Description:
This protein has helices spanning 12-19, 22-34, 40-51, 57-70. The protein is mostly helical.
Amino acid sequence: EQVVGRGGVERPFRRLIYHAGELEQIVLLAVMRLGDEAYAVPILEQIEAQTGRKLARGALYTALDRLEAKG
């Protein structure tokens, strides 16, 4: 399935958001915000700072595995 945005540009990120759960979206946003510094601890800290939710490291890895599987 190809998602095309304005100007005919493919938008695979947009396709992923539609199929990602809430936690996966939060993780993805934290990774995007951190860029090259997106390692486990900074991601967890970013999520807690932005949402007030404390996330277990195992839950983070599970969400990252799901995102990877979805492409």
